[in-house]
Amino acid sequence: MPPKKQSDKPSKKNVEKAKTKNIEDKTFGLKNKKGNKNQKYIAQVEHQIKSGGDPLQKKKEAERAAEKKKKEAAQKLEEEQKALFRPVMTQKVASGVDPKSVFCAFFKQGLCKKTAEKCKFSHDPDIEHKSAKRSIYTDTAKDEDDDMEDWDEEKLADVVGKKHGAEKKTGDSHYLQILS
Predict the structure, then answer these.
(1) Overall pTM > 0.70
(2) Whole-number average pLDDT of the chain
(3) Domain shared by 120 and 73, yes or no
(4) Structural domain that includes position 103
């Protein structure tokens, strides 16, 4: 004889045994009791188990499914609201700066709908890392032709006064006398 096929479902015989065992467990000690109320309860339990299970369990499953649908709908609504109410940004560039030398903030977030040629900002990620490197040792505000060697005592006192503030003005004149 060929071997029997193994299926995922339990056999009908085992299902019937489980149902009768379940009925016996739920009605334990009630079969011998007299009274209309007990007999109705036994009949109800037998009917429920033989027809397919506990109605409370089905009701709980339906409630869980409805709750799950509500959560999914709320999550979908929240995502739509986030998409609708996303803050509108504008990218500004200082005057005199070429916009193509600035990386597009919208492209960085994946929101720029323009092509690289039509967008006034750059879509090249390497531009973001390239910035004008300034020397921290040079003063850009200072005039190039104004050297300290050409200063007279009055100019020196003025610069020292600006540097150290008004509270040391009395000490500045003493400092200048020591230098001369």
Answers:
(1) no
(2) 77
(3) no
(4) 99-129
